Amino acid sequence: MREQRKKIPTEKNSRERATSLKVPSKVSLINQWVSGGAEVIRKILLKGGPIIAFLFLIIYLSFATPHFLSVSNFLNITRQSSINAILAVGQTMVIIGAGIDLSVGAVLALSA
């Protein structure tokens, strides 16, 4: 068996290694960074678009009307949405229990 010899770094080997490395140019690095940033923004907008729109709507309405962020407005919204929330929980239980039929939808429509 031949013993493999380690290559002693010489000036020629160092030059070959230096020329074989490809260093990206500054322009390509900037293009990658910009396209990567645009993709991150696109993913955020696709996944969280409705939440971002909802937050912008809340911010706008809080400046447009003086009583939007008041306690009485929150109580009013809670009272008005509680009926639909209770019906939605009941409908969810029916669907989870696999007991859905046409009468459940009719009862839901009549009770709303």
Automatic annotation (TrEMBL):
Keyword Hydrolase assigned: no
Bilayer-crossing regions: 44-63, 83-110
Organism: marine sediment metagenome
Entry protein name: ABC transporter permease
Taxonomic classification: unclassified sequences, metagenomes, ecological metagenomes
Keywords in alphabetical order: Cell inner membrane, Cell membrane, Membrane, Transmembrane, Transmembrane helix, Transport
Gene Ontology CC terms: plasma membrane
